[in-house]
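Reminder: ligand-aware prediction takes two inputs, not one.
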Amino acid sequence: MLTVRAPATSANLGSGFDVFGVALERPADVVRVEKADRTIIDVTGAGSQFIPEDPEKNTVGAVAEALDAPAHIQIDKGIRPASGLGSSAASAAAAAVALNQLYDRGHSREELVPIAAKGEAVVSGDAHDDNVAPSIMGGFTIATPDGVTKVSADIPLVACLPDIVVSTRDAREVVPDGARVSQLVENVGNAATLTTGMHRDDPELVGRGMEDTVVTPARAKLIDGYESVREAAFDAGATGVTISGAGPAVIAACYERDQRAIGTAMLDAFDDTGADATVYQTRIGQGATVY
Ligand SMILES: Nc1ncnc2c1ncn2[C@@H]1O[C@H](COP(=O)(O)OP(=O)(O)O)[C@@H](O)[C@H]1O
Ligand SMILES: N[C@@H](CCOP(=O)(O)O)C(=O)O
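Here is what comes back for the chain with adenosine-5'-diphosphate:
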């Protein structure tokens, strides 16, 4: 039996749609694997009642298939599904790392990224790498078709997850087909600012670079109270606020001293819309860990 813990992630960070992602110190999924004649999946933990155990429908099934590594796979969910915190990706990332080692396949962490992304294709229709890359490799990652670039950044973050469900598949439907050149120019500037901030461990630059006028406004409509939560987080000291992944979680970059106040402000703002929420005071963390 081999055990792997893979962290939640926050993708996009505003200006880096389908490219940027960060590993979060917490929460995380824990996956245990042992060899078997065919793949059998058991799911327990947060939101497990909404997660299929059929290998054709669970993200880890596609990973086992891609690695030709049939196994009994036990998933203990620490990350609720349809959260915007890379729940489906964390299981896939953990399974990729675990099965690669169990079957001695010899893939590097970077090579495991497109393999784990096959799981994402099962649930969201697209094999986007921006969640599995940081969940496997840790830090801040830039995932492109040419590979993954990683920066071991240290930035405090607050993630606030309301008790509503937004599926990534649905949230991808509202992504606009195109953007104006002025928006492209703005996003290039923001993405470059954010990347520089990651290299310098600078929450101001990271926060400034999280602005986006292309995808985020279209998706904000799916999250009741998004604008007031964002404003409350800024008022409490956040340096940048955006939708985490496809939502409904909202992510704020900040200084450590402001984390608690930002968390409380975001909770209160969701509460005003009638939604309960969970706050994670977290920071950029490491990738999947083998026990
Ligand atoms: N191992 C898994 N963990 C979480 N969700 C899974 C898993 N396998 C399949 N799913 C399905 O994926 C969907 C959640 O994925 P997604 O919408 O991308 O949310 P998230 O942003 O939390 O990853 C749900 O429909 C869930 O049933
Ligand atoms: N780039 C993807 C990221 C989805 O992240 P998730 O945590 O919501 O699965 C997107 O924005 O669609």
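Residues 11-12, 17-18, 84-86, 128, 130-131, 168, 171-172, 245-246 surround LJ64HWYM (ligand 2) (CB under 6 Å). The domain at 156-282 is CATH 3.30.70.890 (Alpha-Beta Plaits). We will return to this case in the review session.
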